[in-house]
Amino acid sequence: MIQEALPNWLETQTEKLFQKGIFDKKKPNHVLINEYQPGQGIMPHEDGPLFYPTIATINLGSHTFLDFYHRLEDSSCSNDKSDTATTNLESRHFASLLLEPRSLLILKNDMYTCYLHGIQERTADLVDDKVANIQSCQAKLGDVLTRGTRISLTIRYVPKVLKVQLFNKK
């Protein structure tokens, strides 16, 4: 990745996370901004070794469910007790987090390294017993939440960046 200065309004947010020690004394240097329309999602994935194993996501606009899945292959993680013979995605889904508007999610440790995370493509979410943080949310079990437009700011630390000037900036 090529290093470039963050805009001031993002620098303010990354500085706050740095001051709170979210990234273990590393200052976030990468922000991915995505817009999701109702019905859009992102397939289950891992973020990979390019990034420091912590992410902070600021959720703006609508709510969403961030779903967690056991991996298909054998995992070196002792906490992953999945049946690796099961390929059905639904049967590998074990938990969700309700990301409310204007919320901050910190994802690290085993939840970052041992499991896949994704957002299902749907226009509404049923709050059920797989929502692990329901006690901290305004929604209640059985609620159906209709999705609107959502903006996510995914904040990371990238350990290896290139320091080059691509354009003749003054």
Commentary on this structure:
- The chain is mainly β and 170 residues long.
- It contains three helices and ten strands, in the order αββββαββαββββ.
- 12% of the residues lie in helices and 32% in strands.
- The protein has a four-stranded antiparallel beta sheet.
Brief summary of the model shown:
The protein has helices spanning 8-19, 89-92, 109-113, and strands at 30-36, 42-45, 54-61, 64-69, 93-99, 103-108, 116-119, 124-126, 144-146, 150-156. With 170 residues, it is mainly beta.
> Please, what is the average pLDDT?
89
Rounded to an integer in angstroms, the radius of gyration calculated over CA atoms is 17 Å
Instruction: Measure the end-to-end span.
Output: 22 Å
Assess the beta-strand content as a share of residues.
Answer: 25-35%
SSE run: HEEEEHEEHEEEE
Structural class: mainly beta
How much helix, percentage-wise, in residues? 10-25%
Q: How do the strands line up in the largest sheet?
A: 1-10-3-6
Count of extended strands: 10
- How would you characterize the largest beta sheet? 4 strands, antiparallel
Helix segment tally: 3
Contiguous low-pLDDT stretches (5 residues minimum) are none
Characterize the overall form: globular
